[in-house]
Specification:
By secondary structure, this protein is mainly alpha-helical. The chain is built from 5 helices and 3 strands, in the order ββαααβαα.
Length: 119
């Protein structure tokens, strides 16, 4: 199969509103179908969604690679407030590890000129 629209991508799934399950895409055309779905939360002048759809079209036309199309799709889903799997599933673990390794820093208000002279 030579058609890039059906070339495999790293699987991505989004939880669309009013859906009992996640919608999964394994190809660029699959991502385009989800983006154009009636369930996708549309907003007027949604430039992130428009960019994602345009990037998918450019990938199909071989003007960009499928990785960029997937990245734009994920950005649009997050911008729409949708959960993205597996991408969002991995992030909390990374954050939890990095926050545990950081030391707590307390913020102190700088002294005013008057307070510095009274010490």
């Amino acid at each position: 199969m030579n058609d890039i629209a059906f070339a495999p991508i790293r699987e991505v799934a989004v939880g669309l509103p009013d859906a009992d399950h996640f919608s999964t895409a394994t190809t660029v055309s699959g991502m385009m179908g989800i983006l154009m779905s009636e369930r996708w939360p549309k907003r007027a002048n949604d430039t992130v969604w428009q960019h994602a759809l345009a990037t998918c079209v450019r990938a199909v036309q071989l003007e960009t690679d499928t990785t960029k199309a997937r990245k734009a799709f994920v950005a649009a889903a997050r911008d729409a407030g949708l959960k993205v799997l597996p991408d969002d599933e991995q992030k909390p673990r990374i954050r939890a590890r990095s926050s545990a390794s950081r030391s707590t820093v307390q913020w102190r208000q700088p002294h005013t000129k008057r307070e510095r002279h009274s010490h």
